[in-house]
Each structure stands twice: as structure tokens, then as C-alpha cells.
Design brief:
This protein has helices at 8-22, 65-80, 96-106, 135-146, 152-167, 173-181, 189-198, 201-204, 208-221, 232-247, 251-264, 275-289; strands spanning 2-3, 32-36, 43-44, 49-53, 59-60. It is mainly alpha-helical. The protein has a domain at 2-94: Neutral Protease, domain 2 (Orthogonal Bundle), CATH 1.10.390.10. Its cofactor is Zn(2+).
């Protein structure tokens, strides 16, 4: 059976909360809430007598959490209008403010992150906006990445966010370099793609030593030559890392590329080039040019 029983205690508490929030007492002796059967309007904040569609006020005793939250949201929004919209002139009427206050009054939970822990917004980097953390939190997240506590998507997104906010001038380049150092042992192509893209030409020209120190551990870990057993992501990682190492002047990488180039010279005259040789050739040319 539909009733207002579940909403009445909430309405009384909400009026008290709004009085404290705004510092202005509710001026009327009572507050009527009316469910209008067949109404097409969602709700109307008439002063002291709010009208609702029946489904926006009346709920079943066994209603689920989603339904209760929706009705609660509507009721709190209309009650907030008793101040913003009814107790002030029309110049102060703003639908956004009652909506914000309605959500704010639904619940409040405070989460304190332990000082030795970390948090990351947008889990698995599922949202399409940049996140600006403080340098301290960037560093803490980078340490989490080093400890393999971040997913590949989170690590890649964190690096992309750091590069973007530095380019926009919000934090110093040194923050990105500190973050990058914590990802030296990373083996994900996608993370390295973002990491090296963040070290733009203006930075890398003056930081070849830093770049070489950053890339050398992963460069030594991977097999320089492509193999038919490599999947397409592994091949891209090898291309990316070895070309970057060569561009930073790593002598071992350059020498390996030159040796492979000499060995592959006859293959270049063939009508068909094996896929693994084709994959290696681009980075060999870059290494030899360097």
C-alpha cells in the first residue's frame, strides 16, 4: 500500500537541517505535502503546501533503496525551495541550489585515507576528464604503481593526467620526472607510450641522460629482436622502448641495431619480408641514424 508514512519523519528532520544550514527559521506554522492523483507535474514548491505526483511522494512500505532515494531527493529539493525561491525574491530563485542542497542533505560520510595509503579517482581511468592531484599524492600514486598496486589502465591514466596538467602549467615538470622514475620497471606498452609521450622534445633534448637511465632497465629486460611468438602489443613495446633508448644515445641498443641491420641486409632484397624482420627494421633505421 502506498503511504506518506516513510517520508514524514524525513520531512521533519529536513526542515530542522535546512533551518540550521541557512540560519533562517521556517516561517510557517506547518508544511503540507499533497499527493495529486493524475498530476502530470513532478512536484511544485508552493509555499507551505507542496504538491507532488503520487509516485513522487507515496511509497510502499517494502520499497527498494533506489525508489526511496528518488522520492527522498524530490522531497528534499522541494523543501529547499521553501528558502530558495519562496522566502526570497525571484532574483534569488535558482533551481541548481535546491538540487545541490537536497543531495547534500541526503547523507554525509567522511573517508579519511591513512597517511601511508593512497587513493585514485576514476577507477581504471573510466572517466573522460583530467584529475589534478597534489605533487605529494602524485608521488604516492607513482609508488603504488611501482609496487604493482595499480591496474594497467590506472597507471596509464595517471601518467597521462600528470603530463596534461604539467603542460597546462598546474604543477612543475619535476613532479612528472619523479613520477616517471617510479615506473622504470613497468612492462606495459600502454604505460610506456604515455610516459614517453609526456617527455616531449623540449624536455628530452635537455634530459637524455635522465631518459637513458629511465629506459635502460626495461630495454635490457626485453629481447631486442621481434619473434613470431610476440603478440602485437609486445611488438609495439619492443619498438617503442628500443627506439627511445637509441634516441637517448644508449650505445648497447645502437650497436645491437647496427648488427641486426647488417645481418638482415640480404632479406631486404626478398620480395616477401618476414613479419618479425619488418617489425625490427623501423627501429634499426632510427638506431643507425642516431
Amino acid at each position: 500500500m502506498l503511504s506518506t508514512g516513510a517520508m514524514l519523519p524525513l520531512e521533519a528532520r529536513a526542515l530542522e537541517l535546512f533551518e540550521r544550514e541557512f540560519g533562517v527559521d521556517f516561517p510557517l506554522p506547518k508544511m503540507d505535502q499533497i499527493a495529486v492523483l493524475g498530476s502530470a507535474e513532478g512536484a511544485m514548491e508552493n509555499w507551505g503546501r507542496i504538491t507532488y505526483r503520487a509516485v513522487d511522494l507515496l511509497i510502499e512500505a517494502n520499497a527498494g533503496a533506489g525508489r526511496r532515494r528518488r522520492v527522498t531527493d524530490i522531497v528534499l529539493h522541494e523543501l529547499a525551495h521553501q528558502w530558495f525561491g519562496n522566502s526570497v525574491t525571484m532574483e534569488w530563485l535558482a533551481r541548481g541550489r535546491p538540487r545541490y542542497v537536497g543531495f547534500a542533505r541526503l547523507s554525509l560520510e567522511i573517508f579519511l585515507v591513512p597517511p601511508d595509503s593512497f587513493f585514485k579517482l576514476t577507477v581504471d581511468h573510466s572517466s573522460v576528464y583530467r584529475t589534478l592531484y597534489s605533487p605529494e599524492i602524485f608521488t604516492r600514486l607513482a609508488q603504488a604503481g611501482q609496487a604493482r598496486a595499480l591496474s594497467i589502465a590506472d597507471a596509464t591514466g595517471l601518467i597521462a593526467d600528470a603530463a596534461a596538467v604539467i603542460e597546462a602549467g598546474y604543477i612543475k615538470t619535476s613532479t612528472f620526472l619523479t613520477l616517471a622514475q617510479n615506473f622504470k620497471g613497468e612492462t606495459s606498452f600502454f604505460a610506456w607510450q604515455q610516459l614517453l609521450a609526456g617527455l616531449d622534445e623540449a624536455v628530452t633534448e635537455g634530459l637524455e641522460i635522465f631518459g637513458e637511465e629511465l629506459i635502460t632497465p626495461i630495454d635490457r629486460k626485453i629481447d631486442y629482436q621481434s619473434s613470431e611468438a610476440d603478440d602485437h602489443v609486445d611488438q609495439q613495446l619492443k619498438d617503442l622502448i628500443t627506439m627511445s633508448a637509441a634516441m637517448c644515445g644508449d650505445e648497447e641498443t645502437i650497436e645491437a641495431a647496427q648488427n641486426i641491420h647488417i645481418q638482415e641486409e640480404p632479406e631486404r632484397r626478398c620480395f616477401y619480408t618476414p613479419p618479425n624482420i619488418e617489425n625490427d627494421r623501423g627501429r634499426n633505421y632510427v638506431s643507425i641514424w642516431k
